[in-house]
Design a protein that fits this description.
The protein folds into two domains: 10-133, 3-Layer(aba) Sandwich (Oxidized Rhodanese, domain 1), CATH 3.40.250; 158-272, Oxidized Rhodanese, domain 1. It is built from eleven helices and ten strands. The chain has helices at 13-21, 42-47, 58-62, 77-86, 104-115, 127-133, 162-171, 180-184, 218-227, 245-256, 268-272, and strands at residues 10-11, 28-31, 54-55, 95-98, 121-124, 158-159, 173-176, 201-202, 235-239, 261-264.
């Protein structure tokens, strides 16, 4: 599935169309469209999706129930496994995930599949919108598929606990993927406490995508992360409000080619603030110039 010699997590619409047109079995396609605070996007999937794509419901499959673990905690392993099997995901066959455009939901599914042990997972760069711009067709046909054999094995990538995230901020680099005004504590529109984890560095996830939803070129991503103090083989932690933009940042890090050791604090800020003993910082310290 890799569109270049280096294995990348992102695949272009043109490359995906080429792979799907080749003889043999195409990759498993997962439609993960989702909008925070809005109803399920299942109706949009039923109206039009990539040929062969299977629907994944974000709130049911890619997140556990909101509560002490945060607004979007880790899903139940067995629920996730069953949903992936129902979507036709096999252990040894490539998977491509997409959402509408900016890959926020797709990156969450990408990271979870990697965490649970799938080694060949990609995200359609620019999502469904990029597919349409490339002149590719959509369909309303939902294919019947054979169940997959994917077995969810946790721990295949690094999942940070709150204390571990704080430790990474102290020893190395902890990136906060929320918009910079929320990081500074100036405009908290979702969570009841404003601010950020002490020592974190602000790196808003969506500064890494273009206006059309596609990610910046790998070299540009690498320069942005380098400006935030990250070097090849750095230990990096990422968090956000509830563990969605954090996985988007993890995806950008992997595509940058810096080969970092990246851990995701999936509970993120919405979990951090459940313990009033955890410290909170505000202000501009940690905001990288130009971001």
């Amino acid at each position: 599935m890799s569109p270049t010699r280096r294995t990348r997590p992102l695949v272009s619409a043109g490359r995906l169309a080429q792979v799907m047109a080749e003889n043999g079995r195409p990759p498993v396609l997962l439609d993960a469209r989702w909008k925070l605070g809005e109803p399920s996007q299942r109706a949009e999937y039923d109206r039009a999706h990539l040929p062969g794509a299977q629907w994944i419901e974000f709130e049911d499959v890619l997140s556990g129930a909101p509560g002490e673990g945060g607004r979007h905690p880790m899903p139940d392993r067995m629920v996730f496994e069953a949903a992936m099997q129902a979507a036709g995901v096999d252990e040894d066959h490539p998977v491509v995930i997409y959402d509408q455009a900016n890959s926020l939901a797709a990156s969450r599914a990408w990271w979870l599949l990697k965490y649970f042990g799938h080694n060949d997972v990609h995200v359609l760069d620019g999502g469904l919108d990029a597919w349409v711009r490339a002149g590719q067709e959509l369909t309303d046909v939902v294919n019947d598929i054979a169940p997959g054999n994917f077995v969810a094995t946790p721990g295949c990538t690094s999942l940070l606990l709150a204390e571990e995230a704080a430790d990474v901020a102290y020893r190395s680099v902890l990136l906060d993927a929320r918009p910079a005004d929320r990081f500074r504590g100036e405009n908290e529109v979702i969570d009841p406490v404003a601010g950020h984890i002490p020592g974190a560095v602000s790196m808003p996830a969506l500064v890494n995508v273009r206006a059309d939803g596609r990610f910046l070129p790998s070299d540009d991503l690498a320069m942005r992360f380098t400006a935030a103090g990250i070097r090849p083989d750095s230990e990096v932690g990422v968090y956000c409000g509830s563990g969605v933009q954090a996985t988007h940042l993890a995806l950008a890090l992997e595509d940058s080619g810096l080969q970092t050791r990246t851990g995701v604090y999936i509970g993120s800020w919405s979990h951090w603030i459940t313990d009033p003993e955890r410290p909170v910082s505000t202000g501009s310290e940690g905001v990288t110039a130009g971001l």
